[in-house]
Amino acid sequence: MEKTALTDNFNRHLEYLRISVTDRCNLRCIYCVPKGIVPKVPHDDIMRYEEILKVVKIGVAAGIRKVRVTGGEPLVRKGIGSFLKKLGEVDGLTDISLTTNGYLLEKNVDMIKDTGIQRINVSLDTLDRDKFAYITGYDVFDKVWRGIMKAHASGLSPIKINVVALKGHNDQELVKMARLSLEYPFHIRFIEYMPIGNSRMHAGDSILAPEIRKQIEALGKLMPVEKNQMDGPAERFRFEGAPGEIGFICPMSRHFCAACNRLRLTADGHIRPCLLSDRMVDIKGPMRAGCSDDDVADIFKKAVGYKQDAHHFSGDPAFKVTDQMSGIGG
Ligand code: SAM
Fold first, then answer.
1. Under a CB-based contact definition with an 8 Å cutoff, are residues 64 and 264 in contact?
2. For the chain, what is the mean pLDDT?
3. How far apart are the CA of 165 and the centre of ligand 1, in A?
4. Is 164 close to ligand 1, i.e. is its CB under 6 Å away?
5. pLDDT tens digits, 207-261
6. Residue 296, CA distances (Å) to 51, 58, 274 in order
7. Taking the CA of residue 315 as centre, how many other CA atoms within 13 Å lie in the half-sphere pointing to its CB?
8. In the chain, which residue ranges form alpha helices assigned H by DSSP?
9. Is the pTM of this model over 0.70?
10. Closest residue (by CA) to atom 20 of ligand 1?
11. 215 CB less than 6 Å from ligand 1?
């Protein structure tokens, strides 16, 4: 691949920007949202849509090709439909996707299709209604499932289901979740819990991918699926004859830093080079002070310069990541 302005010191081409459009969420997942009252980023400190679009256009000129819209919960932000549409009109982007908790999916499937987005990720950690209510704080499993079914019927594909594996919460259900890949063309992606921010879980609550794999292979042997260039960090597999896939995302057991192609734009306007490090560069402040497009491009480059060869996060308190996942976007 050719070098771009966003090729880092370790020759990784950072072409993927994950955009958190809000820190607000309509669920309170135990592994993501802290206990008690969560301080909200003041409205004025959230990046405006036109600012995000400007960052994306300058990013594309520098080498960004792919974006994911996330949050908080992106579907709670007012005007998200017209923003996604405008994002779809940015020349040079080859892939736009959305991560949602599914709460508002049913009523937004048509809007999502209308923007041209083809691929969505829906977070769903359990198929048990009571457990869902416990994990997310809201008894809305049926609503989320209806949203997934409507998205499926509408032809959105692939639908990826993000499952954070949590000791003591959904560890008895991993096989059931994996079985969805035998019934639907969904990509079931098991994610190792990352003990960051101030969540209500503990470092020891992660279930690592080898253990998940061992459990779900009760359903049959997993066969590797060849990766393609647009793939993220998931290691991909399939059960024989399955319409769907299984993926493992292993930030803890086998980090994928060497292949990392990501930058993140946080809801409050910082470029974050690594999910698992709090070091960031402010982009909103300089933009609001009237900096030029070249200055914005330089901020991207500065963030790229901060990208380390690998994260040093192990769950050890000495390497704490204090920012909340909801503001970073996952
Ligand atoms: N609200 C949307 C959702 O729930 O999908 C988007 C934001 S959420 C922060 C993005 C992803 O991060 C979700 O799939 C969620 O399960 C995952 N996530 C959040 N906290 C996590 C943690 N501590 N470890 C691993 N994954 C986490």
1. no
2. 93
3. 11
4. yes
5. 999 999 999 999 999 999 998 766 778 899 999 999 999 999 998 887 788 889 9
6. 11, 7, 19
7. 17
8. 49-62, 80-88, 105-114, 129-136, 141-153, 174-183, 209-216, 284-288, 293-305, 325-328
9. yes
10. 32
11. no
Question: In which residue are the tokens 């769950």 written?
Answer: 315
Q: Per-residue confidence at 318, pLDDT binned at 50, 70, 90?
A: low
Degrees, nearest 5: CA angle 318-321-322: 110
Q: Is the CATH code 3.20.20.70 the one for domain 16-328?
A: yes
Residue with tokens 């061992």: 214
Q: Which atom of ligand 1 is least distant from the CA of 328?
A: 9
**CB of 32 sitting under 6 A from ligand 1:** yes
Residue nearest to ligand 1 atom 2, measured at CA = 100
Instruction: At 50, list the tokens.
Output: 């036109």
Ligand 1 center–CA 324 separation, angstroms: 10
Nearest in space to 200 (alpha carbons), one of 26, 30, 325:
30
Residue nearest to atom 17 of ligand 1 (CA): 330
Ligand 1, closest atom to CA 31? 23
